[in-house]
Design goal:
About 0% of the residues lie in helices and about 35% in strands. With about 350 residues, the chain is an all-beta fold. A 14-stranded mixed beta sheet has the order 2-5-8-11-14-17-20-23-26-29-31-35-34-33, with no helix packed on it. The chain has a 13-stranded parallel beta sheet with strand order 1-4-7-10-13-16-19-22-25-28-30-32-36, with no helix packed on it. The protein has a five-stranded parallel beta sheet with strand order 3-6-9-12-15, with no helix packed on it.
C-alpha cells in the first residue's frame, strides 16, 4: 500500500491455530497510512501486525488494538521493520496468557544514521506468563525518537524495556512508565543494552511491584557522551536492586534520580554499579516507613540526599544522629526503627555525615 492511501478500520480474528494477522498490508510506503484496526489472535501461537510487515518513506501507523489471547504470541504495534521517517501509531497491545513478546512499534526501527523513525505512545500489557515488552523496538538507529509508553508486566517474571535493545547516535528515549506487577521482574527505563554516543534517556517511572526485582533507570551500559534521564524508581515489595542509571556509566552523564526501595531488603545505586569515571548528578533516596534493611552504594556525600519519612519520628539530623553508628566494616548504619528498619551506607563512615546529606519529609 503506497501513495496517499489509507487502510480501513478493520477487525481481524484468528480463532484456533497459529495465525498471522496484518491490520492493513504487507508493506506501507510513500506516505501511506494504516487504519485503526482491532486484531485478536485467539488460541495458538499467533503473530499480529497492527499495520504491516514493513513501513518506509513517511508511512504512518494507525492507532491499533492487538490482543494475543491464548498461546505464546508475538505482537507488533505497527510493523516488524520501520524505515526512516516513519511514525508509529498510538497502539494498545495485550499479550494474554502465555509467554508473549510485545513490540510497541516494531522489531527494527530505521536503518539510516541521519533519518530516524518516531515511536508512538503505546500501552502494552503482558498479562499472565513470563512476557517480554519493548515500548518501541528491539533495535533502533539514527535519530530515532521513542514514544511515551506505558508497559505493564502483569503476573509472571517479566522483562520490560521502555525503548528497546540499544539507542545509538542521537536517539532520544521517551518518558515511559513501567510497572512490573507480580513476579521477579527486570525493568529498563530506556534500552537493555544501553545508550551510546549522544543518545539521551527519557524521564521514566519504574515500579517493580511485588517480587524480587531489578530496575535500571536507563539500561545496562552508557557510552561516550550519552545522557541519562531523570528517573523515578520504586522497588515495591520484595528484595530489590535499584540502579538510577546503568550498570556502568563510564564518561556519560548520569541523571538526577529518585530511588525508593519499598518494603524488603534492597540495594540502591544512585548512578551505577561500577562506580569509576561517571559524571553523576544529585540523586535522592527515599525511605518510607516499613522500608526494611536497605543498602546505599556509592553515596556521594553532600551531593546526594537521603529522604527520611516523617513517620519515623525524626525532624532533623540532630535528632537522628544518635541512631547512626558504624558497623564492624566501617559502614555507617542508620537505625530508623531499632534493628527493624535500617540503612547501611556502604563505604561511608558516620563521622563524615552532615545535615546536608539528609532531608526529613
Amino acid at each position: 500500500m503506497g501513495g496517499p492511501g489509507r487502510g480501513g478500520n478493520d477487525r481481524l480474528i484468528g480463532l484456533g491455530g497459529d495465525d498471522w494477522l496484518f491490520g492493513d498490508a504487507w508493506e506501507i510506503s510513500d506516505e501511506g497510512r494504516g487504519g485503526n484496526d482491532r486484531l485478536a489472535g485467539g488460541k495458538g501461537n499467533d503473530t499480529l501486525y497492527g499495520d504491516a510487515n514493513t513501513m518506509s518513506d513517511l508511512a504512518q501507523g494507525g492507532d491499533d488494538q492487538l490482543v494475543g489471547g491464548e498461546g505464546n504470541d508475538t505482537l507488533y504495534g505497527d510493523a516488524e521493520v520501520m524505515g526512516p521517517n516513519t511514525v508509529g501509531g498510538d497502539d494498545h497491545l495485550v499479550g494474554g496468557s502465555g509467554d508473549d513478546l510485545l513490540f510497541g512499534d516494531g522489531a527494527q526501527v530505521s536503518q539510516f544514521p541521519l533519518f530516524g523513525a518516531t515511536g508512538g505512545n503505546d500501552h502494552l500489557e503482558g498479562g499472565a506468563g513470563n512476557d517480554t515488552l519493548l515500548g518501541d523496538a528491539d533495535t533502533s538507529s539514527g535519530t530515532s525518537l521513542g514514544g511515551d509508553d506505558w508497559l505493564e508486566g502483569g503476573s509472571g517474571d517479566d522483562f520490560l524495556v521502555g525503548e528497546g535493545g540499544l539507542y545509538p547516535f542521537g536517539g532520544i528515549g521517551g518518558d515511559d512508565r513501567l510497572d512490573g506487577g507480580a513476579g521477579n521482574d527486570a525493568l529498563y527505563g530506556d534500552d537493555f543494552a544501553g545508550l551510546a554516543e549522544s543518545a539521551q534517556g527519557g524521564n521514566d517511572q519504574l515500579n517493580g511491584g511485588a517480587g524480587n526485582d531489578i530496575l535500571y533507570g536507563e539500561g545496562l551500559f552508557m557510552y561516550d557522551h550519552a545522557s541519562a534521564g531523570d528517573d523515578r524508581l520504586d522497588g515495591g515489595a520484595g528484595d530489590d536492586i535499584l540502579v538510577g542509571d546503568a550498570e556502568s556509566v563510564g564518561l556519560a552523564w548520569g541523571g538526577t534520580d529518585l530511588l525508593i526501595g519499598g518494603s524488603g531488603n534492597d540495594h540502591l545505586y544512585g548512578d551505577e554499579i561500577d562506580f569509576s569515571f561517571s559524571q553523576g548528578t544529585a540523586d535522592q533516596f527515599l525511605f518510607e516507613t516499613h522500608s526494611g534493611q536497605d543498602t546505599i552504594h556509592f553515596l556521594e556525600l553532600h551531593v546526594d540526599i537521603i529522604l527520611i519519612d516523617s513517620g519515623y519520628g525524626y525532624g532533623s539530623f540532630a535528632e537522628l544522629q544518635s541512631n547512626i553508628s558504624d558497623d564492624p566494616h566501617g559502614n555507617a548504619v542508620i537505625h530508623l526503627n531499632g534493628t527493624v528498619d535500617q540503612i547501611t551506607l556502604a563505604g561511608v563512615q558516620t563521622a563524615n555525615l552532615t545535615a546536608s546529606d539528609f532531608l526529613f519529609v
